[in-house]
């Protein structure tokens, strides 16, 4: 810019000297100098007015042709226009590629503006949610009116959220999974998947497990009854006592497995947050500790620490199952003489129930899969302990129904600590139990 100013000043000096020399030749140099200055200023203002009109008209077409400093400015604008036009074409081409690729996706994609208003969606989302072109600019919750989705959209936490499963707005037979990702200034991206087939397969699996488990209960009861009769009658053939004992133990184990499968099926199919009982934590811990001492047979030191007694709003049977599974697992997997601690405390984040054992610990690679059905860290030790492999899966579903979470802290060779975290809204004072 400094070079342009110097160049323009040089032009003005040349014009002024020429007019001055002409003025001396005609013996009227003052008038010649003023006339030259006036012509120069008119020329500058004329070029500026042309340039201003071009800017006011939206810079349509190339910048006006000019000379001097305004000519250089016009050239710069022309170069900027060309670069901007190339970048704009590149962005348009990229946008077309993105739109073409998202249009080919089977998953629906919905872009939301401020306040959850529809900005753009691909054809799959339009088909899954029943959106029409004239719906642009309206809130998405006007078309997906499920109360669970409305509360899901109103949540402002940026942490990881599980996808929401619900029926399609215009077709209850179709099951959708929606996941919201927020970005920018209150903008969001909604991913919509059709999981009808997976949902139906999962429902078939649940029905199969529940039906088979239910049908197995009667024959197992009959077998257990006959085995108990044979053992107690004293009429069993000589040498059959040990086989009968093993048969009775395996029948009891099979009965426990069937009962756990039925409980899991009930937890999966029933609605969440259905329990409204006030369950006293202190009484529940005392009952679970007594069961653990019975299973231990005096082989472990079981301590209970409940200095801040409270109540949990929920289902008493389910909560007892969750607490008992953790404590009985600690008994099964802790060596004889090892301490087991049951602890309950309350803080600003809610209530917490922890079970600390003195077992061999769990390698960190196994922790994410502990709540899977029949997942075993050590299959041989699990079979010897009599576990079914469903205990932590039951704990997981009980916690889901009580809006709670579980964390695991374990180091191989130094035992494990399983902690259940209950939100403050689920807690009350022990006096209300």
UniProtKB/TrEMBL annotation:
Broad enzyme group: transferase
Transmembrane spans: 9-25
GO molecular function: ATP binding; phosphoprotein phosphatase activity; phosphorelay sensor kinase activity
Keyword check for Transferase: yes
Gene Ontology annotations for the cellular component aspect, listed alphabetically: plasma membrane
UniProt xrefs under SUPFAM superfamilies: ATPase domain of HSP90 chaperone/DNA topoisomerase II/histidine kinase, Homodimeric domain of signal transducing histidine kinase, PYP-like sensor domain (PAS domain)
Domain Histidine kinase span(s) in chain numbering: 211-426
Compartment annotation: Cell membrane
Residues annotated as domain PAS: 91-135
UniProt entry keywords in alphabetical sequence: ATP-binding, Cell membrane, Kinase, Membrane, Nucleotide-binding, Phosphate transport, Phosphoprotein, Transferase, Transmembrane, Transmembrane helix, Transport, Two-component regulatory system
One Pfam family matching this protein: PhoR
Gene Ontology process terms (BP): cellular response to phosphate starvation; phosphate ion transport; regulation of DNA-templated transcription
Role noted for this protein: Member of the two-component regulatory system PhoR/PhoB involved in the phosphate regulon genes expression. PhoR may function as a membrane-associated protein kinase that phosphorylates PhoB in response to environmental signals.
UniProt protein name: Phosphate regulon sensor protein PhoR
